[in-house]
Structure formats: C-alpha cells, structure tokens
Design brief:
Number of strands: 7
CATH class of the largest domain: Mainly Alpha
Strand content: 5-15%
Largest sheet: 4 strands, mixed
CATH architecture of the largest domain: Orthogonal Bundle
Structural class: alpha+beta
Order of helices and strands: HHHHHHHHHHHHHEEEEEEEH
CATH superfamily of the largest domain: Hypothetical protein, domain 2
Radius of gyration: 24 Å
DNA sequence: TTCCAGCAGC
DNA sequence: GCTGCTGGAA
C-alpha cells in the first residue's frame, strides 16, 4: 500500500474526509431498492447476494424486475437450491452471462448443504463460493453484515478517480483505487459508506455530465478543480472487435415444429436454447447442407464481449421421419417458444423470421 | 450504427 | 490475460 501511495502520499485526503461528507448525504438521498434494507432494518443476506450477482453484469433498472421475479419464485436460498437449472436459466434469460446463473445455483446449493442455509459473514469464506469474487465478497460482507471491508465497483472507481484526478488509466489504476477506497473506509457503517459511493456514482458523479453542483464531495474534488471531471477515469485504448459471419438454420417440419438445440453448458450461450448455428463455438462442425434451404433477406446483428456477429438465416423444411436428431436437438412447437430459455440472439432471429 | 459499462472463472 | 452478453446511451 505504501508503494501504491508513494507519489500520491502528500496529496492524500484525511482518511475520514470523504465519509464525513458522504454519509449525511446518503442518509438524506439514498435510493430505495428492493434488496436494500430500510434504515434501521437488518439486510437480508440472500437478497444482497442475489442482487450483487445480477448487478455484476448490468444496471439497476434492468435488474429490478429479474430480482423481484427470483424472490417471488424462490423466496429463500434453500428454495433456490432446490430449483432446477433449467428453471433458473429460464428466469435468467435475457440477463446474459449464463455461466453466472449456473454459479448462482451451485452457490445456493453450497449455502444450503455446507452452511445450513446461513450465509457466511466473513469475506474470506464468501470468496470461496462459486460466482463470488473479490468485489462481491467485499460487497456482501459490508452491506449484509456491516463488516469493515471495501468493495470497489465501477461507480466507486469513477468517483475516486475524479476526487483524486488519477492520471493512471484503468484498468491499471485498480490497485491504487482499491487502496484509496480502503484508506477512506470508516470503521462503522462500512456498508453504508460503500453504498453511498455507489449511489453518488449513479446519481451525481455520472459518467457523462456529472452534477457537480449537487455533489457532497465537490469541495475537495481535484478533477472538478481542474475543470474536467468528465474526462475521468482515464482508460486504456480498447482494441477493435472482429466481425464473424455465420449461418443459422431455421428448420421446420410440416406441422409448425421448429428444430431447436440446447447448447453445451460451457462456453458461449451455455445451456440456452437456439436454432443451430454451426461454428458459433470453435471446433463445431457443420452437419447441415445448404441445399434445399433459402436464405432470408438481411442479417441479424449481435455483439458479444469480444466480437460482432452477423447471422444469415437459412430457412428449410424437413420431414421429421427422415431427419436424424443429434443428441442435444429436439422438435418444439413454434407456438410454445416462450417456455424455453432463449438468449437475446435467438429472440432477434425469431423476430427476423416471423 | 457504434460505444460502453460491468466482474468472475479458467 | 482471455472469455462471457445485453440494454441503453451517444
């Protein structure tokens, strides 16, 4: 920590400067969120964990309906641990990063069997559970159990980068930001402190057009002093994504059944249901003949973490009797697609065809 | 149409 | 250090 601070040391703010201004602001301005305990009430660790896993990948407004649906279907972590993976993936569909739904399930099972349904309250124990990494372990320990830990999410990175006008670009500045967050974490109310920084980041210290005039930290924000808070945090130049072109096979039998396949559990869109797209995973071979199929006009575009995808849809009709299904394939009524766990790519293809 | 945020697993 | 998805903003 001393080395990280070395060239910043004389510029460090008092350890408690930030929280002294931040906590009163939080008490007056905190967001009401379905997983957040009302002031003076005990947080529900199951709710905190579930929301943090969902929030790992998307924003609060997107998460809220998924979260409410999950706790309606599975009110406790034991209920979730007794669900089926297919039901969980179905409820998760559209959220993306489907490996996280599998880890959610594994984690619920471990909590139920190894911890008798009680969430561990130690950061180091939480860190051993599936799907819980450094950020989530610290967040649960602080928010659900009031432990003195310092979770650093994207909001907190942005706020601290601005307050200190950090010149090192992300992600290289992460250790420094972690150390700064640690430096300012109060002994009491560490969870409120973390949530206050997150709320500040989402409501005031926004990526674009921050509302500095309303910020409780404006008096000692160095980026504001320099006049360019929006330029922080600095980022390494990102590399360009390649574009891949693939064919999807929309194959119907004579009676409105569609050929679907369940994708392998690991890898892209794992465990979700799609029409066949040969070569979407590496090493996949193409078992389909393009003869007898007609390409639809236009392409379906979708972007994954590391590449753009443009899909041509080939439509064909097959007699069920002389079509031999692969192990992971099945015929499914077109009218009942909604009972399957479909990724957004598949929904775009459905829209394109129908 | 393109860009971007968001964190864990391997 | 590479892989994994989506919605919303620009």
């Amino acid at each position: 920590m001393t080395t990280i601070f070395s060239d910043l040391k004389k510029d460090l703010l008092d350890p408690d400067t930030i929280q002294k201004h931040l906590l009163p602001w939080y008490d007056a301005n905190q967001r009401t969120l379905p997983w957040r305990a009302l002031p003076g009430r005990e947080p529900n660790p199951y709710h905190v964990w579930l929301s943090e896993i969902m929030l790992q990948q998307t924003t609060v407004p997107t998460v809220i309906p998924y979260f409410l649906n999950f706790i309606r279907l599975w009110p406790t972590v034991q209920d979730l641990s007794h669900a089926s993976l297919d039901d969980i993936l179905h409820a998760w569909q559209g959220l993306g990063y489907y490996a996280r739904a599998r880890n959610l399930f594994k984690c619920a099972q471990e909590i139920t069997t190894r911890y008798e349904g009680i969430f561990p309250d130690m950061e180091s124990t939480l860190l051993t559970l599936p799907g819980i990494g450094p950020y989530t372990a610290a967040a649960i320990a602080a928010i659900a159990f009031g432990k003195n830990t310092s979770p650093v999410d994207g909001n907190i990175e942005r706020v601290l980068s601005r307050v200190y006008a950090i010149k090192v670009p992300l992600p290289g500045s992460k250790p420094l930001l972690q150390a700064l967050a640690r430096h300012h974490t109060p002994l009491h109310r560490a969870g409120d402190y973390a949530q206050a920084l997150m709320d500040l980041g989402s409501r005031i210290c926004t990526p674009k057009k921050p509302i500095c005039i309303s910020c409780p930290l404006r008096r000692f924000c160095r980026a504001l002093e320099k006049g360019d808070p929006e330029n922080y945090p600095l980022r390494e130049a990102s590399s360009l994504k390649p574009t891949r072109f693939l064919d999807a096979f929309w194959i119907e039998d004579g009676s409105n059944f569609l050929l679907l396949e369940k994708r392998p559990l690991s890898g892209l869109l794992g465990g979700l249901v799609m029409v066949p797209i040969p070569l979407l995973n590496k090493n996949e071979t193409n078992p389909f003949f393009k003869e007898g199929s007609s390409p639809l006009k236009g392409l379906v575009s979708h972007t994954f973490t590391h590449f753009h995808l443009k899909v041509r849809v080939l439509k064909a009709r097959a007699a069920r009797g002389n079509f031999s299904l692969l192990e992971n394939q099945f015929w499914h009524p077109l009218s009942d697609l909604s009972d399957q766990a479909l990724p957004t790519l598949m929904k775009k293809i459905v829209r394109h065809v129908t």
